[in-house]
Amino acid sequence: MRYGYFDNDKCEYVIERVDTPMSWTNYIGTEGLVGVLNQTAGGYLFYKRAEHHRITRFRGNAVPTDRPGHYVYLRDDETGDYWSISWQPTAKPVECYKARHGLSYSVFSCEYSGIYAEQTLFIPRGADVELWDVKIENRSGRPRKISVFSYAELSWHQINGDNKNFQSTLYCAGASYKDGVIEQELHYEENSFQFFTADFDPDGFEIERERFTGIWRSENNPEAVEKGVLNGRAAWQGGNQCTALHKRFALDSGQQTRLCFMLGQGGREAGLAIRKQFACTLARDEALAALAAFWREKQSHLQINTPNANMNTMLNIWTLYQSEINVMFSRFASFIEVGGRTGLGYRDTSQDAMCVIPSNPQKCHERLIQLLKALVSEGYGLHLFEPEWFEEKPVSTFKSPTIVPTPERTSFVHGIEDACSDDALWLVSSITEYIRETGDATFAEMILPYADAEAAPDSVYEHCKKILRFSQRMVGSHGICQGLKADWNDCLNLGGGESAMVSYLFLWALDNFIKLAEFLGKSEDAAHFKKVHEDTAKVCRETLWDGKWYLRGFTKNGRPIGTDADKEGKVHLESNTWAVIAGGDGPEKGKKAMDSVEEYLGTPYGLMLNAPAYTVIDDDVGFVTRVYPGLKENGAIFSHPNPWAWVAESLLGRGDRAMNLYDRLCPAAWNDQCDLRKAEPYSTCQFITGKDHPAFGEARHPFMTGSGGWSYFAATQYILGIRPEFDSLTVDPCIPPEWEGFSAVRRFRGAEYKITVKNPKNVSKGVREVLVNGEKCDRIPIMKVGESCNVEVILG
Ligand code: NOJ
User: Fold this and answer.
1) How much is the average pLDDT of 516-537?
2) What percentage of the chain reaches a pLDDT higher than 90?
3) Residue to probe by mutation, ligand 1, list 490, 574, 631, most atoms within 8 Å of CB
């Protein structure tokens, strides 16, 4: 069953049945102010940090789901009947409703009782305000008297305070109404205000939650809306604050009206200024158009046209969008993680920042620098950190009067016992990728401090060497990299045991670094690390092959993990894909390993992470053995490593297999089976429940997952084969042989490449000829800024 469809012209997903099997998320905002919202306008707003600067309140993991939200109620003032534009919270017949999720905006619409209404939520670029632009049309064929009410619940800034110790919320925040603006004041904090206003002079207002809903009621049936009157007190200290404004109006048959609510960061003065700025509908239309232009610019860095329509939809619009969201907001603001932790995960951010450099070089650059500053001079990254710990002028944070000691800076720097073996390795490849994409070799020379303040600052290039030396040093008894607290798999906790995946990741990082060193003319380093690469590859070759696939590693007692003899956790996806990506062991073994992956891990929805799932607890292997079989890391179809398999199959030249795996995981391909998938078909989810769980096939945890970035990176760079190099652009696809070709437009270093790939001999891989503007070339040169060229790539 399907709940909606893709409208690619508008870059929207249209939800025709809003009672989806799970809440379907969208993110609004592109800068400081961020909204996490579902298709019923449920969700929350925060400013910069979901943990420390909440604006609207959210009751996580409750029923009804995703409450409260940013709601607009309409009321028929002649009958007293009332409803909400976004279906919830009043939940009138679902057939009356639709929702559209677009790029950084959502539109909720309804036609009920002869009144059509639309509520568009978005955050204009350059302004710290969420606009609720409302359009109403009387389609009933008779004059009507209608009231409109807004409602959102405001939050105490610190989520822990707001959720656990209500003293701050109840006694230390207040609100007032004046000049058309509701101002919430967080009295403990210096200059801390939120505002809510509208483009009209309201007929009534309410600033106190219980006076709006009634104490024994909810947003479903608010007493104030039922009565049709808001009779708020002009100021109130303490209690729970809300943002309700009321306007009555008469609409002739066929008449339309438009109004706007505005919820933002700052006090009454800021509210008045914003009110002035967005009072005019033209200003709102222009702001929405500017948002669309912002996304069009990003999309223009790569647009593809292939025979695979779902792939076109995902890569041109939604996968890029998801990947950008991860880089912009990190991974901790969703409906699963509602802001209980904040900051950056080292490995997650390192990977996210590698995948959308073409469309967001500035943000990726900022992230890389934050990561480099959070590198300990021993060569490992701080697993979870706040970038501001390492800023020269830390942004002031809230000091609780209930005495929470302020930690010393040195206490942020955790020791080796909490280090993950993969964290910083990703960064080496991300830095290399950044220089490949931008051509900015000076980035390697940039001097930056380490997290441990006593270490002397060093260049980005030297930071990379520290990372490589750490992995070279931290090996176990077989010579394979130690697993430490965990490797990419949070739940594989090997300690001094060894991780095959990390050794392969090390080889990949080395390979990228060697190419960088050669490009920078550092031949001694290149030669030195080539030797390290050779030695590591040799140990891997001699140690990790199990006969039909590659091992996952060794426990600290030397017991191999992922062998044919194992009853559980026999085959693991990470080590097999990375063995192929790292190369060095020949295509025959690679093919055999990937065949085993298909045989043991293959499902209609993609590849499981390991199989059979663990049922027997084994703390030598790690927490994975305590996870329910078929969920998350224990045998789910974990999405993030699936694109590694697309890369592996592409490197092996098996384009039909790579594409088949792509299709199985592709969210859009499941649009007509959302009763099974349950999650939104426009976002790759963290995992799909695996075979060993009764909910096999259900997708969980949308948006905030590395599978967004990796899907984008793997599909564009390996299946379609469009890759930046230090001194050229490569087009080396690996596609299904039945494809006659495809086309793409890629912007690279300020020039435009109009690429046509032709496949006259129906091969999967192998470039026979490259023509640039009709002339044969060995490689595609870097054009001058502003130039445009035609690139023809003939396979076979
Ligand atoms: C989610 C975590 O954010 C990520 O760091 C990890 O790699 C995956 N889970 C797999 O464990």
Assistant:
1) 98
2) 93
3) 490
